[in-house]
Amino acid sequence: MMDDEILAEAPSTSAKCCKSKQAVSPSAVSGPPVVQSPPAQTPHLDPATDPTAYVKQVDGGFELHLIVDNLTCPGCVPKIEDALAVVPGIGTARVNLSLGRLKVTWSDPAFDPRVVGETLTRIGYRTIPYNAAVLDRLTDDQDRRLLRALAVAGFAAANIMLLSVSVWSGNVTDMGPATRTLFHWISALIALPTVVYSGQPFYRSAWSALRAGRLNMDVPISLAVLLATSASVMESVLSGRYAYFDAAVGLLFFLLIGRYLDHRMRARATSVGSNLLALKAVAATVITPDGRRTALPADQLRLGMIVAVVPGDRIPADGTVARGRSDVDASLITGESTPVAVAPGDTVYAGTLCLSGPLEITVDRADRNTLLAQIVALMENAGQAKARYTRLADRMARIYAPTVHVLAASTFVGWLIFDSGGWHPALMNAIAVLIITCPCALGLAVPMVQAVATGRLLRSGVLVKSGDALERLSEIDTVVLDKTGTLTLGRPELVNRDDLAAEDMALASCIAQGTRHPLAQALVRAVPPAGPAPDMREEPGLGLAASIDGAEVRLGNRAWCGVAIDPESDAVDSELWLKRPNAAPVQFRFRDRLRPDAAAAVNAFRARGLAVEMLSGDRIPVVTAMAKELGITEFTAAARPQHKVARLQTLAARGRKVLMIGDGLNDAPALASAYVSISPALASDISQIAADLIFRGERLGSVVEAIDTARRARARIFENFGMSLVYNVLAVPIAVAGWVTPLIAALAMSGSSIAVTLNALRLARRGPERAP
Amino acid sequence: MSIIAYLLPAALGLGFIGLLAFLWSLRAGQYEDLDGAAVRALLDREPLPDTDGDKN
After folding, report:
1. Which of A21, A316, A502, A662 could form a disulfide linkage to A298, CB 3.0–4.6 angstroms apart?
2. Are A527 and A500 in contact, with CB atoms under 8 Å apart?
3. Set of chain A residues whose Cβ sits within 8 Å of the Cβ of B23
4. CB A74 to CB B42 under 8 A?
5. How confident is the model at residue A665 (pLDDT cuts 50, 70, 90)?
6. H/E element holding A397?
7. Which of A711, A726, A751 is the last residue of a domain?
């Protein structure tokens, strides 16, 4: 159950709607974060980087896995490893660039793992400890098992083919039956262990399907492999002419390639998801009744505990402020990043970011009961509709498996009745039908295309998070966009630079360095500060006061700078004021800017026949103005999260397949309930978990490219199905008629597999419209 | 034809060595971080001792 009221209360309708994701945005982490050490705080007891609770004990030492948040460039690898190599006590530190993780091991129990996080913070990396329990649950050996099975099958297939080619050429030259039988036996020697070992993934899946009373693609595959192998052994015993060892093993080899590609794609998606989930695995600093501070994983917090939070940290649980004042960035909850000032007695929510002062919080609700966890649960419920989606390959399998069985069985029966040769030719022909129809091409067709498509998208900055996301993306007919952070960059920018004196800007920027407030940071981005920050104090919820040459200069909101609040104001912009003694206050105006290619992207959606709609929580005049600017006629303003979900459900009920693009936590339920969804990489963590795809960078054009690629991938999949169909239509009658020899089976099988693979690889070529 | 008595074991043996080498490299964790491996090749420093095949 989500707490509707709290979400409804959230001030999602405001002109100052700007989401700068401070803690995760690269701009905030690329430089060493300003560590303001508040009083009564040991300098390095920083909950966000305290991994003590997540250290895993392994034989001969300790091990810690960390997610490195901004591990992007190749140069990061030596930078991180070298920095840690000189830290005394650390045994090894190894970065995994593919997974974005760091593993540190040491053997001395006295070593303080917090040093790791600190060292990395100093060189500009934000780390999040990786929950060992989560790690163990997610690490399965399946990837390796498949790869091993694939290697064995590949070895066997190559060597048996070597022998088979000799046998086939022996059929037209002078090879005697004795040599042929010897070759068959050697093939059997290689094939039997391979069939037992490498076939396991298929047998297991087939067996569990049969036990559940269903048929899947693996049933005919297992049947074909096992029957072909045993019949071939029989042929070898009888010194027969034809053995299908190469077909059985080749089949396993081709299908394992498809299986492995498919698995790897899913594993990559899971790894993205688990990195995001682990963001929650942050330790909290608990103040015990006797005044000591200890680190505790956030999921072990209990009601009534007192938690200390320093500026820059996420609040670990829902609670009430017991002591301290601060601005809190609640953008994760409300999608609104104008910070909220909190004081003792106020309620704060897990996942929000403490900005300006240390807080002590009494825990009211922890772990599963927090608002954040409830929203995640709501999102999971909304996403169940997606789980019901049946993938194309599975839909094909439903028709395919019974057809193959019927064909093979009727071939067997037909030969028994109409041929005088008895059961032996009947069985051999039935096996030939099973082998010839076996879905080599089919099993490769889909995974191959998807692997190529996801690889291509990854290179252009789009991450595919679920296996069937591309299939669903190719079917959409409507695009629904959020405004803030999606059509716009979600980051305020100084707009009245031309009206300001250079002197004012320089002074304001100097002062603004001292805080994490998003508007102040926008100012620092716009006007790089010329000198160090002066002495100052921060008044949470109001602004900064700096003393310069003995005089007090203030930077903050209207009230702080003594400007009258204008109730009539309908301003679209956010503002900061600078007040110097004996001078009129100066206004700095900020506005969230459109993504550079927002209009182009909207036009591109339209050009592809998609209906475009805007759903925003922002105020009506702001949304109307933007819709007009972009030429969007369908839009809804002042929409709360539940309105967004309702709107998507209305569209779905009309049979529309909607792509939702959004970034805030307030979009998360909508992202989960849409047919398919995309989130920018700077979106809130929850939204990224909810979305099926994530795109990096400022360009919405990547979304257009993702749609194009998905559509092309779908076309390739259908072409591949078509090719398989043609091939089956040609080959099956030959098999039923009993004319198939192992040579023909091998040619047909490899030929069709190579054809679908080449067709899939066409996707990797750059499309004509994407010339760099 | 007696030549095949030498050639066949030789061919199979070589293939088998290749298979063992692959399985060893898999066990040694050489496929854990393919992106990182591409980068490490260009780093101008001593190789790290840690190449054990720990998960992740």
Report:
1. A316
2. no
3. 148, 151
4. yes
5. low
6. helix A392-418
7. A711
Residue with tokens 């989500």: A2
Picking from A95, A151, A179, the nearest residue to B1 by CB comes out as A179
Is the Cβ of A92 closer than 8 Å to some Cβ of chain B? yes
SS (H, E, C) A743-762: HHHHHHHHHHHHHHHHHHHH
Q: Which residue range(s) make up the domain with B32?
A: 20-45
Please report whether residue A476 resides in a domain.
yes
* Residue A694 lies inside a defined structural domain of this protein: yes
Residues of B with CB below 8 A from A144's CB?
26
Interval A173-218: pLDDT, tens = 777 888 888 889 999 999 999 999 999 999 998 899 889 888 778 8
Domain count, chain A: 2
Burial of A141 (0-12, 13-18, 19+ CB in 10 A): exposed
Q: Please report which confidence band the pLDDT of residue A524 belongs to, taking 50, 70 and 90 as the band edges.
A: confident
Cβ–Cβ gap A159/B11 under 8 Å: yes
- What per-residue confidence (pLDDT) applies to A230? 92
pLDDT digits (tens, 9 = 90+) for A14-66: 333 333 333 333 333 333 333 333 333 333 334 444 667 677 777 778 888 88
Question: Is A2 a residue whose pLDDT tops 60?
Answer: no
Contacts of A340 (CB under 8 A, 6+ apart): A327, A328, A330, A541
Q: Which of A676, A711, A746 is the last residue of a domain?
A: A711
Put simply, the answer to whether B33 touches A158 (Cβ < 8 Å) is: no
Q: Is the pLDDT of residue A244 over 60?
A: yes
Query: Per the domain annotation, does B7 fall within a domain?
Result: no
On whether any CB of chain B is under 8 Å from the CB of A98, the answer is: yes
Q: Is the Cβ of B3 closer than 8 Å to some Cβ of chain A?
A: no
Residue at B24 is within a domain: yes
| Interface contact A179-B32, CB threshold 8 A | no
Number of domains in chain B: 1
- pLDDT at position A731 over 60: yes
Is B1's pLDDT higher than 70?
A: no
Backbone angles phi, psi at A614, to 5 degrees: -115, 130
Asked if A137 reaches chain B (Cβ–Cβ under 8 Å), the answer is no
| A179 contacts chain B (CB < 8 A) | yes
ipTM: 0.78
Interface probe with B: pick from A72, A96, A181, A190, most Cβ of B within 10 Å? A96
Whether residue B12 lies inside any domain: the answer is no
pLDDT-above-90 percentage for chain A: 10
Most confident of the ranges A24-33, A338-347, B16-25: B16-25
A15 part of a folded domain: no
- CB-based contact B50 A94, cutoff 8 Å: yes
| pLDDT for the residue numbered A396 | 78
Catalytically active residues of A are 482
* A636: CATH: 3.40.50.1000
SS (H, E, C) A555-608: EECCCCCCCCCCCCCCCCCEEEEEECCCCCCEEEEEEEEECCCHHHHHHHHHHC
Alpha-helical regions (H) of A585-682: 598-607, 620-630, 641-653, 668-673
Q: Is residue B39 part of a domain?
A: yes
Taking the Cβ of residue B41 and every Cβ of chain A, the question of whether any pair is shorter than 8 Å is answered with no
Residue A448 has pLDDT above 80, yes or no: yes
Are the Cβ atoms of A77 and B12 closer than 8 angstroms? no
Q: Is A658 in contact with A476 (CB distance < 8 Å)?
A: yes
Distance from CA of B50 to the nearest CA of A (A): 7
The verdict on a CB contact (< 8 Å) between A96 and B40 is no
Which CATH number characterizes residue A72's domain? Answer: 3.30.70.100
- One DSSP character per residue, B1-53 reads -TTHHHHHHHHHHHHHHHHHHHHHHHHTTTTS-HHHHHHHTT--SPPPS----
A155 occurs within a structural domain: no
CB of A103 within 8 Å of a chain B CB? The answer is yes
Q: pLDDT, tens digit, for every residue of A378-391?
A: 556 555 555 556 67
pLDDT for residue A389 = 63
Supply the pLDDT for residue A567: 57
